[in-house]
Structure formats: C-alpha cells, structure tokens
Amino acid sequence: MWNRKQWSSMTFVIFFLAATSSSDDYACKIPHHSSHPFCDASIPIPHRARNLVSLLTLQEKILLLSNNASAVPRLGLPAYQWWSESLHGLATNGPGVSFHGAVSSATAFPQVLLSAASFNRSLWLRSAAAIAREARAMFNVGQAGLTFWAPNINLFRDPRWGRGQETPGEDPMLASAYAVQYVRGLQELPGIHDAARQDDDDDDDDALMVSACCKHFTAYDLDMWRQFARYNFNAVVSQQDLEDTYQPPFRGCIQQGKASCLMCSYNEVNGVPACANEELLGLARDKWGFKGYITSDCDAVATVFEYQKYAKSREDAVAAVLKAGMDINCGTFMLRYTESAIKQGKVKEEDLDRALLNLFTVQLRLGLFDGDPIRGRFGKLGAKDVCTPEHKALALEAARQGIVLLKNDKKFLPLNRDIGASLAVIGPMAATTELGGGYSGIPCTSTSLYDGLGEFAERISYAFGCHDVPCDSDDGFAEAINTAKQADFVVIVAGLDTTQETEDHDRVSLLLPGKQMDLVSSVADASKNPVILVLTGGGPLDVSFAERNEQIASILWVGYPGEAGGKALAEIIFGEFNPAGRLPMTWYPEAFTNVPMNDMSMRADPSRGYPGRTYRFYTGSRVYGFGHGLSYSDFSYNFLSAPSKISLSRIVKDGSRKRLLNKAGKEVYGVDYAQVDELQNCNLLSFSVDVSVTNLGDLDGSHVIMLFARGPKVVEGSPETQLVGFSRVHTISNKSTETSILVDPCEHLSFADKQGKRILPLGSHTLSVGDVEHVVSIQIY
C-alpha cells in the first residue's frame, strides 16, 4: 500500500486533468444541461442534492466515491478532485493544486505551529481568509479545487512527532481557538470576503468560499516510532483523555467553526479503525451537529483490511466505513470493491445515497452547480489576486508575531543597526530558502534567513559549518570558526528541517541533530562577543547546553517561518519589531525520550514512573515551558475586575426552587464538584476578567496576556493548571493597556472525570496572569 506522499506523487499524472480543468469545464451549462432541478439555485440545497442523487445510476454513484470523482457526461457533470491542501498556503501535496499555469506561486505563510505562537485570533482569521481568496482565484483559472483538507488540529502530544509542526500546539483550548478562526476565515462566514463578491445582496449563510476540513479525527499523533506506524497503531485512549484533551479541538472546529469536512484518521481508537468507528463518527454528526462530508485519510479504507485486519474481507472494509458514516474514500479502494460489496449484500445502495447527499450538499454550497463560476459571486478573482502585496505583508506580519525570544541575557538584543558592525551568519539552515516545513507550496518570493539579515547588516559573511542539517561531519567547522572570529556579532542558525521531522517520520532524539551542538559551542567559544542562536523547526529541542552557556546570549525560535521569515528575523534582531511570540508547546529534556511514544495517557502515573504529557499534566523538568516567550520590554499586570464568588444550582424538575440533588433526589451538601451536564443554563454563568498590562520598557510592542486557572484537586487526574483565555494587545512604552477575557466556568474551569464526564470542582479557583493571582470561589446553593 502506498503512503500518502507516494500516493500524491505517483498519481499526480492520473489526477492532473481533473485538477486543472479549464474554467469552461463546469456543471449546468446552458442550454443542454441546465434544466435539471439540481441546477436551479432557487430551490433549497437539500432538494437539489436529492434530485441529483436520484438521477444517477449505481455505477455512476460508485465512481463518485473517490477523491478523484469521475465525470457524468450525460448529466453534464465534470470530473472533480476533492483533494487540495492549504495548511499554511496553497500546497503541492494534494493533486487538486497545480502551479503550472497562470499562477506559478502562492503566498507561503508560516507553518501552523509558528502562527499559533502568535496567540492572535484575528491574525489566524486574516491569514486563512487570504488563503481562501487565493484558492478561489486559482480555482477560477483551473489550478485548484475548492475543497481543502486543512486544518490539522491534532494535539502536539509528544515532542518527537514529525507532524507536530503542522498543528497549533499541545493545548486543547488553543488548538480549538485556532481551528475556529482558520475554518471561519477559509469558508467565508458572512462579512469576511465582501470585497470579492459580485453580488453584494447575496446573504446566503450556507454559501462557502472554499471548504475546510478538520483532520485527523482522532487521537492521531504518531507516524513512525519503533514497530508502531500510523497505519497499524491502535491508540488506546481513556474516556477521560478523549473528552478533555483529544476531542475539544474537533468539537470547536465543528460547533463554532462550522467546518464542512471532517477527515477520519488512519489509526484505530480503542481497537476500532477511526474511519470504521460508528460511535466516533456518530458523535460528530449526532452530538456535535456536524453538517458536511467525512473523508478518509488517503488509503485509510484499505488499512482497515490490509494493515489493521479489522475487516475479514475488502468488501467488509467498504461496508464498515460506509455504515460508520464515512462518505468518500481518498484512494481507489472503494472504486474497486463497492460493487461486489453490494452484490454480496454487505452494502445497500441507500448507504451510497447517504454519502452522496453529504458530498453534493457541500459542492452545492460551493456553487459548483450554479453554472459558469466566472459569472458567480467570486468570478472576478484570478491570477492578479494571488501573491498580492497585501498577502505578502500579512505573511511577514505572521512571521513577526510568531517568532519566540527564548533567552536574552543582559538584554543583549536588539542589536544597534546604526553602529555598522559586521555580522557573521553560520549554519546549514541559514542560506536555505526552504523555510515552509511540511505541506508547503511554491512561495511568492524565496529568501533565506541570511538574505533577510543581509538587508540590515552593512557587512555580512557566511559559513555553512555543517553541510546539511543532519550534520554528520565537522569538515566545515574550521571555516565557520574563522568566519566568526572576524565578525563583531555572530548569528548561528541551528535546528531541524524536514529531513528530521515530517509526515511518516518521527524523531528519536530531542537534541540538535548530528554534530550541530558541537558547532554551536565551538563558534560561541571563538566569537569575540556572545552569539545569537536561532533555532529552526517545529519539534521541541533540548538546548539546555545553550541556555547555560554565557557565550550564547540570546536564543530565538523561528520554527518554519514561511516566505518572509528572513526579514521578520532581521527586524527582531535589529529592534524594528519587539518580539511577543509564546511557545505553544512544552520543550522537554532529552530524558523524555524514555517515555514510550505509543502511550496515549495524558495524566502522570508515579506508580509506573510515567511523568504525564503537556503542561497541563507533566510533572517533570522542562527546558522551556508552554507559554514561555520574552520581549525587549518588561511587563506588570493587574486584575481590574473579576468576580470573587460564583453560585451554581441545579433546577428541580418541577421548577419550584433551585438546589443540587443527588440521583436519589435528596439535597446534597458539602460536595466537591458538580457534573457540568447537570447544571442548568451553564452558559449564563460566563464572566469577564478585566486585566491591565503595563509596558515597563522603552519600546512599544504587542504582548500576549495568558490567563491560566488552577482549581482545587477534588478528584484524581485534576490538571496542574490550564489555559482559560488569551489576548494579544498592543502596548505603548511606560503605559498601561486594558483587555478583557471571557471565562465560561463550565467550559474553561472544568475537566473530565474517569468516566469522561465533565466536572466542575467547587471551592477556590486561582486565576493567574504572569505573577499576579485572583481567587474565584465556586459554590453550590
């Protein structure tokens, strides 16, 4: 069986025709194919979808259940490629996007993890909106589809995961917030893309600019570790961890983001393949209200039979996923075995109809059956709307806001640009223009970190030190050391690239690859002044040696900063931008690699020496903690307004008075917690926390305010602390700025018990911002 990368490359030629169809290849053409009811935009979408399904033969239905959906010439339906990628810009991974035509590049935003480090909801929304605009433009010129399989909102549970770079980090609240903004920006909920519309009076809330897909559902965060591969891995997850860690991002993506697609993952969840898991997929549709289509990950239906041996036959695998609620197979497995599954009585034609209704509904919302797209609401968009100055400026802003200053001894940074000092840049990642990480496209402009620094330094030199990121040889050390000795200041660029972490490739160590650590230390020792260490990559690194080394004054994490990363880094190093990014994941010491990667438990278990995972439950030492990030300014905080007491109640069925009852109907006193689903009008209990932050420095700049909560330890498995809100604000030197964070106690102050039921601890909850705290008492009356 091919993996996803092989599938993308091996089938590109096959799918190229469908992916790059000309703009005149559309459904419902006048006069021959426009009379069908499904072409009548005045008819409600569900009726149009049902009409289309009713007109199809069984063979035609089967041929539409692949990502490369076949044409139906007699109805005037062109082929359609469902698989396009747009994780942080239009990407080449899926066959639905091509850069061969009028558009040869697209704006390359920072990889998701670095964007998440900005903790800026409006930035995420605007970035996704820009990607959507470029996607529609490329669709109009025949170089993209309209269904994009992003965002990746799995939690960055283990620091070795090769795809952690693609995610918003380790915190479920942060990942959910990112998912909501990305999906809203991509799908164009009302008011986001009005400037692109031709019909300003069109207020159809069901319409989509493009379709977003939340992936990979669920508990998918291992690609290849020892004998475990994503195709055969059974993620054993407690109901407690599912409820308060793995599922919240998907719930938010569906309920608040209104995503129109959900991708089920390769792995099994507690013994059942995700794409064949009726309980799991039913949760999304029946409990969370998901309205859209469910796609398999590529060849995930085949794994149900071939790798996981869950199904006894290929036909059983087809039946299992269709009955579970999956709608479309990325791959050809269902094309080959659905008909025989029907003949064997394992699949009914109604199962296909249900899937096709979901698929056609999304296509109708995209306007694919409304006639000529050039005459539609987004018809004016074209090549001129890709790589615009506005989008490139936004990519630069996203890189600026995400870069994290990890260390800055004696305020070594920023450097003074006006003194004309010479600068040496050392390291294999310094001169590369491949700064996008996984799921990248072709950027509008290709510049390196060295190029960006060169715009600010009058005299600059370069030495690679290591021939590549694996750094297996020290052949280049002597030249690097000599180059460093001759410069006034030295920037060393070390870290990771996609040879170390990517899809299908997890890391085994948290240390810098190969001899990179020796390179950094040798150059630092030789430099006349302390050096600046710049770290690339998505995975956390154990750089304790650099944190302790006084010759390494400053450390910056730039992740995969996208096309504008070089300029953003230079602006920060030379003080034109005050850094404010915060780490969206914990950086662990190398000893953490002793923890089995296949252990999905979040909570610590001292009895077996298990330290737990993520800042919410981890009990071990850290290199850098979640939320760590420095600025060129210092800040102080003050709580301006927050309640000191909140009273909860449960309403008796007869409504006579409010009191908390146990299951026997007796009034309860002295309880330690309340089950959230037993509380009435929980959403009405939300309260505002007003905070002021004072910039104590001489530089203006943005600042991320992070509100954490620490609740009473009423039951086993309580989080150590958890993020309940955040706000990025612009601050003025020596002045105070106020912000407000809304807290829903039933959502933000609760967690799951061992049965997977959310509980709200009673008693004192400590809210904290920086080093100041405020106590809120939650009581039952």
Radius of gyration: 27 Å
What's the arrangement of strands in the largest beta sheet? 12-17-16-15-13-14
The CATH C-level class name of the largest domain: Alpha Beta
Under the CATH scheme, the architecture of the largest domain is: Alpha-Beta Barrel
**Main β-sheet description:** 6 strands, mixed
**How far apart lie the N and C ends?**
60 Å
CATH superfamily of the largest domain: Glycoside hydrolase, family 3, N-terminal domain
Number of helices: 22
Shape: globular
Assign the CATH topology of the largest domain.
TIM Barrel
Care to count the β-strands?
28
What helical percentage do the residues reach?
25-40%
Low-confidence stretches: 1-22, 192-204, 651-663, 665-670
Keyword list:
single chain; alpha/beta; TIM Barrel; Rossmann fold; Immunoglobulin-like; 3 domains; five-stranded mixed sheet; 22 helices; 28 strands; 26% helix
